[in-house]
Amino acid sequence: MESEGKAKVDVDDLAAQFRDTIAATGNKYKYKDFDRAFSTWIRRHADEPRRGRPFGVYLTKTQKAQAEWDEDRRIHDQLAAEERMTQHAVEN
Question: Model-level pTM?
Answer without folding.
Answer: 0.42
